[in-house]
């Protein structure tokens, strides 16, 4: 196993400084304080975040404040872990919470109890209060927004008056209505969108704290102060805040008719960055390298939007002559029943039917169209994020009857990739950087991570892959204050089976992370099928950046062959 970066850092920056910890090859975690919710620690986090964002060091992409830590996301092609640690340690020595601007107060109207707040009566009974007293206590003070996470725009606020501190539900709800106001432990929050949830629902607000149609979709951000204002049911009903979903706009250049959408066919690009601090994950292709190469086959920019598909795949009919390119997993594609190759461009005539069979290798395939799939940009990306109904084709997976358009009528080129250059798929060894919380685990658990094989379980999707294998035992607690996540992070819940966070995974999480897969290797995990074996190899933090350089060199060296006929 490789050396642990924190051992070096403790000596380098001194015991009084915050801890600087790795999160894979693209994340630096700066941690203040202990395991308790602290306004002082959170203020230090926000001060550092403001200082870093005001003059970002070279390579820094975004900052994500959480309760007690700041996740700094960076580009490993533009900086090194050593260089960034030194720069951030110096900035941290100067960052002063006293320099933070005054908190912006925000009033949130709430209709308490009744149908909007089904748990109010139970909370009152448990607390030994009347419902009116619960409402008075909850609305009688301001709350600090410590962080946003869980879902886009979800604010973690606190702290509650001691008499309102009740436990979460023993069995979380599968469906919590959007805009529900809730409490749990020391915290209160507002569910911005419909989602699962285990907090106690005491009311609902007509205010949309997250609305992607606004120029600023997020009403709240870390550091705000919030006061809840009781309103009557009649006031709530006058403006319940419900928004109707609009159908996806028709493309002026329709190319494909969806006859069957398959299990999960969505529009994806390289994702939307810069919004993790608001709880919005990156999304984008599960295999970003495959997306890039597939786009290059028809002359698109590498990040153009394409269709991402898995088994069973879609059935698509060309509505006019159109070029396509296929790459990624081999889902046995056919055109009018005849075998069609992957990692190559194809010409379809009007009426041709493209179908997919059982996968021969890999899990996620890509279909590129000239100029990219023609859907609107939402927050600088066309990627679909299903949990929030965001981006892509109306924020959802493709369905029969959908028409898919392309950005331009003709391809810039028609190419194939020689088989010797195909990106590898299937069972694999992937590189992992230990941390930021490997010290939450026993030595046997850390050893098992890098020595034992793991298999992809039956529980895997665009948010995360749960792995079967040896139980990774925690030293004590299996939970921590929520902190930042990136795709590739290896979260380990109390059961001891690691979950690899994927592009649609949450931007924050409350389970310890024993390590994180380096970015370019994550596609190997994503392309592994159920039951396939994955092994982890620990590498030093600075050495992990080799993966990004290797991938960039591979793309730069690609040589294609022209498709004729």
Automatic annotation (TrEMBL):
<dbReference type="GO" id="GO:0017168">
    <property type="term" value="F:5-oxoprolinase (ATP-hydrolyzing) activity"/>
</dbReference>
<dbReference type="InterPro" id="IPR029000">
    <property type="entry name" value="Cyclophilin-like_dom_sf"/>
</dbReference>
<dbReference type="GO" id="GO:0005524">
    <property type="term" value="F:ATP binding"/>
</dbReference>
<feature type="domain" description="Carboxyltransferase">
    <location>
        <begin position="277"/>
        <end position="554"/>
    </location>
</feature>
<protein>
    <submittedName>
        <fullName>5-oxoprolinase subunit PxpB</fullName>
        <ecNumber>3.5.2.9</ecNumber>
    </submittedName>
</protein>
<keyword id="KW-0547">Nucleotide-binding</keyword>
<dbReference type="Pfam" id="PF02682">
    <property type="entry name" value="CT_C_D"/>
</dbReference>
<dbReference type="InterPro" id="IPR052708">
    <property type="entry name" value="PxpC"/>
</dbReference>
<dbReference type="InterPro" id="IPR010016">
    <property type="entry name" value="PxpB"/>
</dbReference>
<keyword id="KW-0378">Hydrolase</keyword>
<keyword id="KW-0067">ATP-binding</keyword>
<dbReference type="Pfam" id="PF02626">
    <property type="entry name" value="CT_A_B"/>
</dbReference>
<feature type="domain" description="Carboxyltransferase">
    <location>
        <begin position="18"/>
        <end position="220"/>
    </location>
</feature>
<dbReference type="InterPro" id="IPR003833">
    <property type="entry name" value="CT_C_D"/>
</dbReference>
<dbReference type="InterPro" id="IPR003778">
    <property type="entry name" value="CT_A_B"/>
</dbReference>
């Amino acid at each position: 196993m490789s050396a642990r970066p924190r051992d070096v850092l403790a000596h380098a920056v001194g015991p009084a400084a915050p801890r600087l910890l790795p999160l894979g090859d693209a994340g630096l975690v700066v941690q203040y304080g202990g395991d308790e919710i602290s306004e002082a620690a959170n203020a230090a986090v926000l001060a550092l975040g403001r200082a870093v964002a005001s003059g970002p060091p070279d390579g820094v992409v975004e900052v994500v404040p959480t309760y007690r830590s700041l996740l700094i996301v960076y580009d490993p092609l533009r900086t090194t872990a050593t260089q960034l640690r030194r720069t951030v340690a110096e900035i941290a020595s100067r960052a002063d919470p006293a320099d933070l601007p005054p908190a912006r107060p925000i009033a949130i109207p709430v209709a308490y109890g009744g149908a909007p707040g089904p748990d109010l009566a139970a909370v009152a009974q448990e607390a030994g209060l009347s419902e009116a007293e619960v409402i008075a206590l909850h609305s009688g003070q301001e709350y600090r927004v410590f962080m946003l996470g869980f879902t886009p725009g979800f604010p973690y606020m606190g702290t509650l008056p001691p008499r309102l501190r009740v436990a979460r539900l023993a069995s979380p709800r599968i469906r919590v209505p959007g805009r529900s106001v809730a409490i749990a432990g020391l915290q209160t929050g507002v569910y911005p969108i419909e989602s699962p949830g285990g907090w106690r629902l005491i009311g609902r607000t007509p205010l949309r704290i997250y609305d992607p149609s606004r120029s600023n979709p997020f009403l709240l951000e870390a550091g705000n102060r919030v006061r809840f204002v009781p309103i009557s049911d009649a006031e709530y009903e006058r403006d319940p805040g419900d928004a109707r979903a609009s159908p996806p706009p028709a493309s002026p250049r329709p190319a494909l008719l969806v006859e069957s959408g398959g299990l999960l066919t969505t529009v994806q690009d390289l994702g939307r960055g810069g919004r993790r601090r608001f709880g919005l994950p990156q999304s984008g292709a599960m295999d970003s390298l495959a997306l890039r190469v597939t786009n290059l086959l028809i002359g698109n920019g590498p990040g153009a939007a394409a269709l991402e598909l898995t088994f069973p795949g879609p059935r698509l009919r060309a509505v006019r002559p159109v070029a396509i390119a296929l790459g990624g997993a081999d889902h046995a594609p056919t055109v009018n029943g005849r075998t069609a190759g992957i990692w190559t461009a194809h010409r379809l005539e009007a009426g041709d039917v493209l179908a997919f069979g059982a996968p021969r290798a890999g899990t996620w395939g890509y279909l590129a169209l000239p100029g990219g799939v023609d859907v609107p940009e939402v927050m600088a990306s066309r990627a679909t994020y299903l949990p929030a109904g965001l981006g892509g084709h109306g924020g959802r997976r493709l369905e029969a009857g959908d028409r898919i358009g392309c950005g331009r009528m003709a391809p810039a080129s028609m190419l194939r990739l020689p088989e010797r250059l195909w990106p590898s798929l299937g069972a694999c060894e992937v590189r992992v950087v230990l941390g930021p919380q490997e010290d939450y685990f026993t030595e046997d658990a850390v050893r098992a991570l890098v020595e034992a094989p793991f298999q992809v379980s039956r529980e895997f999707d665009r948010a995360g892959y749960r792995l079967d294998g040896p139980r990774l035992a925690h030293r004590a607690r299996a939970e921590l204050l929520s902190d930042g996540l990136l795709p590739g992070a290896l979260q380990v819940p109390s059961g001891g089976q690691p979950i690899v966070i994927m592009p649609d995974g949450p931007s924050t999480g409350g389970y310890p992370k024993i390590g994180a897969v380096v970015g370019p290797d994550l596609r190997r995990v994503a392309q592994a099928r159920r039951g396939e074996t994955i092994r982890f190899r620990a590498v030093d933090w600075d050495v992990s950046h080799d993966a990004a350089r290797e991938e960039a060199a591979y793309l730069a060296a690609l040589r294609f062959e022209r498709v004729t006929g």
